[in-house]
Specification:
The protein is mostly helical. Strands 1-2 form a two-stranded antiparallel sheet. A hairpin with a 3-residue loop joins strand 1 and strand 2. Helix 1 packs antiparallel against helix 2, helix 4 packs across helix 5 and helix 13 runs parallel beside helix 15. The longest helix has 27 residues. The radius of gyration is 21 Å and the shape is globular. The protein starts with a helix and ends in a 14-residue tail after the last helix.
């Protein structure tokens, strides 16, 4: 049972997030205004709790409720963006609260589930802000998983969590310059980048097994027919079809291909790199787009039934908008984000994701579709 103090503390963020979701989907502006009111009350109560702890000279140990409230505040921002950085700030706040608890407390139960959630969303914080995640350390890679084996999803998140800024900055910011510290000779991979590539190649059989174990006819293929052994190996990690057994499997596969896209994108800053790897990046982007289509078609059209799959797919689509060599893919990703913003009620997070694409000459005019 929660104490009355904790109940009062938790109540506001829960009401804010719940009313934001309902008010948005029901198009009830009065409820939306009430949601904003409770959001503000929740933030004030969280600040007061932290200030009171400092005044008493205590080093407050964060509770499950503290961490949950930070996540609920981030969830509110999914529907209504009060500030372009607010969603990321709430996720960073949740990660700092988990850091205060330490990895040893995150091995089982609710804290382990919260750790998994925050660790996943910190991938986007790292990508967007270029600030390293606290979870990109050996102790956070191992201690929380001491009492259970890692899944394929865990191992994909491992790779995305530790990708350094030098591998991400060029493609994610939409610039054409390659990172000299991560790539050599304009389009050749450094030893650091090759380490990530080797990890993804080793993971591919397990990713394939997610589909074949569901009884699907799914085989990798290598359309590159030249004598470049490295390219042949890379092409084997691309799909031949897009058919998924369930939403969790689909999003795991999307993030596997996202990792490939992030590693490959900086080399396309040079003409030689685009000629060599452009089609390969497009193959991985096609997989991400296919998962977004699957998410739209397998939850009865509602964010209620998606298991947060919509939220998980927002930033992969943003990345396609910025770095896919294909105009059609960039337009498709942009259109889906705009649709989720206007039709699915995810006005906050999709607006943040789309902001970096404003002014692009390839944007679609939805009135003409």
């Amino acid at each position: 049972m929660l104490s009355n103090t904790i109940r009062s503390y938790v109540r506001a963020p829960i009401l804010a997030a719940s009313l934001a979701l309902y008010g948005t989907l029901a198009h009830e502006q009065a409820i939306v205004l009430i949601a904003h009111k409770w959001y503000g009350i929740g933030l004030n109560r969280q600040r007061k709790r932290l200030i009171d702890g400092r005044k008493q000279g205590q080093s407050m140990m964060p509770t499950v409720e503290d961490i949950s409230m930070a996540l609920l505040s981030a969830y509110f921002e999914v529907f209504f963006s009060t500030n372009p950085e607010a969603y990321f700030q709430h996720q960073i706040g949740a990660s700092k609260l988990l850091e205060a608890r330490g990895p040893q407390d995150c091995q089982t139960g609710v804290l382990h589930e919260l750790f998994q959630t925050v660790r996943f969303h910190m991938i986007f914080v790292t990508i967007i802000t270029h600030k390293p995640s606290i979870f990109a350390t050996e102790q956070w890679f191992t201690i929380p998983f001491a009492k259970r084996s890692k899944t394929v999803d865990d191992r994909v998140v491992d790779v995305l969590t530790v990708m350094p800024e030098t591998l991400l900055s060029s493609g994610i910011t939409g610039t054409s310059a390659t990172s000299s510290t991560a790539y050599e000779h304009g389009f050749e991979f450094s030893s650091q980048a090759m380490s990530f590539i080797s990890q993804l190649e080793a993971l591919w059989p397990e990713v394939e097994a997610l589909l074949t174990s569901a009884g699907l006819n799914y085989e990798g293929f290598a359309p590159y027919a030249g004598d470049d052994v490295q390219l042949v190996r890379m092409w084997r990690c691309t799909p031949t079809g897009f058919n998924y057994p369930d939403l969790p499997t689909a999003t795991t596969i999307a993030f596997y291909h996202l990792a490939w896209t992030l590693i490959l994108s900086p080399v396309c800053g040079s003409e030689a790199g685009r000629q060599r790897y452009g089609s390969l990046i497009m193959a991985h982007c096609a997989s991400i787009l296919a998962v977004a289509t699957f998410v739209d078609g397998n939850n009865n059209g509602s964010v209620y039934n998606s298991g947060c799959s919509y939220l998980r797919m927002v930033f992969p689509l943003r990345i396609i908008c910025l770095i896919s060599p294909s105009l059609m893919q960039r337009q498709s990703a942009w259109y889906r984000l705009e649709r989720w913003r206007t039709v699915k009620g995810m006005g906050g997070i999709c607006a943040v994701a789309l902001a970096s694409s404003e002014g692009q000459d390839w944007q679609l005019n939805l009135d003409q579709i």
